[in-house]
Amino acid sequence: MSDIIQVVELSKTFGDIRAVDGVSFTVGAREIFGFLGPNGAGKSTTIKMLATLLKPTGGRATLAGYDVATQPTEVRQSIGLVFQDQSLDNRLTADENLKFHAMLYDVPGDVYRERADQVLKMVDLLDRRSSIVMTYSGGMKRRLEIARGLLHHPKVLFLDEPTLGLDVQTRNAIWRHVRALRDEVGTTVFMTTHYMDEAENCDRIAIIDHGKIQAIDTPAALKRSIGGDTIIVSGDDQLGADIETKYGAAIRRSGSEIHFQRAAGAEFVPRLIADFGGRVTSVQVKQPSLEDVFLKLTGHGIRPEEGSAMDLMRQGMQLWRRGGTARR
Amino acid sequence: MRSLKTIYTIWLREAKTFWREKARIIAMIGQPLLYLLILGNGITAGMRLNRAGSVGYIQFLYPGVISMSILFTSIFSALSIIWDREFGFLKEVLVAPVPRWAVAMGKAFGGATIAMVQAIIMVAMAPLVGISLSVLIVLKLLVLAFLMSVAVTSLGIVIASRMASMQSFQMVMNFLVMPIYFLSGAMFPMTSAPPWLKSLMMVDPLTYGVDAIRNVVFSNTSIVAGELTQPLIDVARQGGLVRFQLGFDVELMTLVAVALAGAGAWSFSKAQAA
User: Model pTM?
Assistant: First the structure.
């Protein structure tokens, strides 16, 4: 698998703040790669550098063989971007927004018509294509932006928190299409998220916190690194002690339940039943979640309210900037 | 080819969004009317300016109001970049694989197109102030509106490329646009201005734009001076209300427009998204 994105020691500082602190990674062609981390971890800043919107203050990154700092036009033609905050023209219709995009990306007219139908159908906006975007709900705007990002069949599609505020059906539809696009057109997908369930969809994930990459691997491997599944057993009073001596496992009691770790937990259950069959009243195997992985690697959770100081500052800035702004 | 397509794409968006904003079109009709009817008539009455055989204040003011409306319309077009920035749309443009200078040109031509619509609106007001126009004059006026607007829109692009938010808009209006307008001779003639003011007016590029528009607009109207009926343009020239030859004005406007368009394209290519 050839690498379509190569990043070496990439950094971005804003004043004294190291938003991205020397990250290195590669993304393979046709891979769905995710950046998982809390708000303010440096996810969006990294995407902006890879998408040529911000100049790196250190390090180097290439995309499809082009240097993001010195060959921005070539990089831009190769990528599609769905931003975290909206970037549509509210005064134009959905069709006009798409047409504008197609013209800027040099998509020929007949190809455009076919693809516009395709992407609008995917995000379920076909019947609203002639409405002015201002009349759309937040979720509809988001769907339209995703449709627009796919319109020119980019080599790499960047999705910055793509399904923020979307309902489950739309999320699933978008994921279906993202995978189809990868399989049929060979698009590489680079996404950021702070949703665990969304990160599960990725082929590989980089866990990022405070501008640094803490781990990169497949979701399954990351979860394995936790040290196996949790087995939860209930049974008679002596069961816990017997399990401890028989398997040498450290058990933890929670009410009447006995918890212990075991690699490949599902395969372990038959053995447990064979050994203690009549005494066990229930067995549960709980696989470790990415949340557990994140907690283990960073020592804190990923929920947005636990965003870093950097994030709070950024939000403050935005509020301040928007505060006195009235349209016309 | 790609650049031309970009210029066209940006221009098309400007034209479409302009057409959708009826409030803006109403302002483009209303504001000049306000200046002409209220300010024009008010000052004429207050100063008793309408001596027989001279140019009436309202006729003097009319080309000035044309210039003003082109100036305001154009600066408004350019500063829409800041709204695009605040509402996120600018990112879509900045990340597109197109030359930034072409985006700036598209924006300037978009502004110029709207300014030409403004000029046509102004032509419709000519009967109100007793000015007679011809098809040729209207065509010349459109050319002047285009030149003036490319210059002003590009100046606006230079500013908007660096400006992060709309708060600074008021600063630009007060300390740049209004002085340019007041010093252009649109509202009072340079002839009667004190020397220090006169020299400031001479360095204001808009002075030559206003002079060009007077040259063109006055060329088909006659007024009665004493026994004779004289062309308005001659009376205005004798009174120092029209100071330069049209050719000189147009050369200077072209020069300024090209220089500012270059500056606008350069500034915009340095613009940051966030």
Answer: 0.80
